[in-house]
Amino acid sequence: MFHCTGSGISAGDIATDISNTTTQTFISARHGFNISPVIDSHGWPFDVHIDCAAERDVYLHVFPVHLEHPTLACLGFFKVYSIGSPICVIDMQARWVARIFKGESMLPSKEVMLEDIRKRRQTEYAQYGKDVFRVYAVPYMDHLATLTGCYPSLVPLFFTDPRLSIHMLFGPVVPASYRLVGPHRWEGAREAILNSLNTTFEGTRSKTAKYVGRSTCMYFTIGMLVLTIAILSIFLP
Hints:
45% of the residues lie in helices and 9% in strands. It is mostly helical. Keywords: FAD, Flavoprotein, Membrane, Monooxygenase, Oxidoreductase, Transmembrane, Transmembrane helix.
């Protein structure tokens, strides 16, 4: 039995603990780094340089293509472009992976996956000159949600629940946004989305004001509704 961890501080602690019970323990990293193990009786460390080469042929930053069967998934094997929470992205990755492992969704052929990787690399090399493994959080999560079957279409939602659709179009993207439809649908998703702004602002308040006006979400909804009508009046004949 073996275990594989990342190269962060917590991963190093975990690797140290589990190495006492596993036959092999691997530390994975994007590039080389130094490890200073304590090996003598006085506790003095000696530097050991380890070069780590990560396998880059990973479909949608999750599934290694070289495996015969999709029995290994890499969660969090990416960097987010400036805006977006990696935790939300990993949550969406985990939901997709669970369906693959359960046989409820299928990966495309190896040729299709390699072509997708080639296009991603081509784009990244054109922008950065190297393979940076970055993702735009929202489009990436939308793509995974489509594969998982939980992507919420805003067009029909606008006619059935305009308030919610406006919040989803102009407000923050939260994990609950992908819990409205499809597998693992959550009844409380709508309320969580509508209260996402209030939840954010409430966490910054240390005192409760004597006068409590209308909620932030209500003002946001009204403002976005006016903006939507203005945009439609400009572009629609």
